[in-house]
């Protein structure tokens, strides 16, 4: 009797062990199959979204910091409060290899040497104002002529070269809030302009930039970000092989100093037609100096909508651009000359990278027919732009 009970117990224990073994084998198999899936998914480590900072030196006697915004997919964007500069935007390609899709430097000294606005916030007026002059409410204002006879990107010391007050917002998404008071008369512009810019990184790899400003005197305001993109993540490749679509039936032709003539011209039948996706290199040789023009976006109502898509087949990366602005400056890095070295150790040459600067049209303060850029006391300037990275597998 006892022997039979013992025998049954031993048999049961053995059966249990065997079933645990097979169950274990089954789950191990499932796990193995899951991890054999897409190679890029294997590399996609889930991380806790957040924002960290390190000291990055000094400028204007103020502390400069470098902030790292990380999302749940491990995408990282580094931004400094010096010039509000986006120094890197690190994302995977179709193979899962991570690299920065924007050009930049790893140290502050590179930026103090005044590169051509790499990744920077641009203000008080993005792009050019003709003859560095404008008249507002009957008064003539003279700005610094820092681009031939014209004023470019806010002047000698624009918003790209000042230290912004930074505060970290660590809600559900990592976000960096930057504030700057541009004093009445700074770089020749009227009024104390209080500016706030907020950078947020979503879990869908969207970099959202929100610009707000108020003034105590009427002033032109046109804020943008001057990131230079190369979706291959390697400035050894030019951007001429990238494909671009701009949702714009018109552009603003320019004179020899890149000031709009005032005409709003159709892109149809011209090298400026990007209404359906086109390789950037296809028609570039017919545009003297390369593309450096403002496209008049079809969307007119000021809502946040997709206005451009940039794609690269080497990396499988695409970048969608959304904005509330009426214009897009598409610049093919024509003035880059290989003298500056990117964080990947390679020289940044002509067409190594391109800019898609969301904006109001250049020289609007002197072009009454263009959408107005004048901000008056009591009004609120508000503008939003989103750069969304997609990896096509
Ligand atoms: C803008 C301008 C270009 C050039 C760059 C900076 O994109 O339109 O002409 O000045 O900035 O080098």
Number of domains: 1
CATH topology: Beta-galactosidase, Chain A, domain 5
Rg on CA atoms, Å: 26 Å
Largest sheet: 9 strands, antiparallel
Roughly how many Å apart are the termini?
Answer: 67 Å
Which ligands accompany this protein?
alpha-D-galactopyranose
Taken from the alpha-carbon principal axes, the silhouette is globular
Named at the architecture level, the CATH assignment is: Distorted Sandwich
The SS-based structural class is mainly beta
Strand order of the largest sheet: 11-12-13-14-28-24-23-18-21
The share of residues in extended strands comes to 35-45%
According to CATH, what is the class? Mainly Beta
Number of helices: 3
Low-confidence blocks of residues: 1-8, 17-44
DSSP strand count: 28
Share of residues in helices: 10-25%
Mean pLDDT: 91
């Amino acid at each position: 009797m006892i022997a039979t009970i013992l025998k049954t117990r031993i048999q049961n224990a053995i059966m249990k062990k065997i079933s645990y073994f097979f169950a274990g084998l089954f789950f191990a198999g499932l796990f193995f199959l899951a991890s054999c899936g897409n190679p890029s998914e294997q590399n996609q480590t889930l991380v806790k979204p957040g924002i960290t900072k390190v000291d990055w030196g000094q400028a204007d006697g103020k502390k400069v910091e470098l902030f790292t915004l990380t999302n749940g997919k491990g995408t990282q964007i580094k931004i400094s409060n010096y010039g509000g500069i986006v120094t890197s935007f690190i994302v995977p390609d179709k193979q899962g290899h991570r690299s920065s899709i924007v050009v930049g430097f790893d140290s502050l000294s590179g930026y103090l040497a005044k590169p051509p606005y790499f990744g920077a916030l641009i203000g008080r007026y993005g792009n050019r104002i003709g003859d560095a002059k404008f008249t507002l409410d009957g008064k003539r204002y003279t700005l610094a002529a820092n681009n031939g006879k014209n004023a470019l990107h806010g002047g000698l010391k624009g918003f790209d070269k000042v230290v912004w007050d930074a505060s970290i917002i660590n809600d559900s998404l990592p976000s960096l809030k930057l504030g700057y008071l541009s004093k009445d008369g700074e770089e020749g512009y009227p009024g104390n302009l209080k500016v706030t810019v907020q950078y947020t990184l979503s879990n869908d790899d969207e970099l959202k930039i929100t610009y707000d400003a108020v003034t105590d005197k009427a002033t032109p305001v046109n804020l943008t970000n001057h990131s230079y993109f190369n979706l291959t993540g390697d400035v050894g490749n030019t951007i001429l092989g990238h494909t671009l679509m701009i949702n714009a039936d018109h552009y603003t032709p320019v004179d020899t100093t890149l000031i709009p003539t005032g005409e709003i011209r159709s892109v149809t039948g011209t090298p400026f037609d990007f209404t359906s996706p086109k390789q950037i290199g296809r028609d570039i040789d017919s545009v003297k100096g390369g593309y450096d023009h403002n496209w008049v976006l079809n969307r007119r109502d000021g809502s946040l909508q997709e206005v451009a898509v940039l794609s690269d087949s080497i990396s499988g990366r695409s970048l969608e651009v959304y904005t509330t602005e009426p214009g897009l400056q598409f610049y093919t890095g024509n003035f880059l000359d290989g003298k500056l070295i990117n964080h990947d150790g390679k020289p940044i040459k002509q067409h190594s990278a391109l800019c898609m600067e969301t904006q109001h049209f250049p020289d609007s303060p002197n072009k009454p027919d263009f959408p107005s850029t004048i901000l008056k006391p009591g009004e609120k300037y508000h503008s939003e732009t989103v750069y969304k990275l997609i990896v096509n597998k």
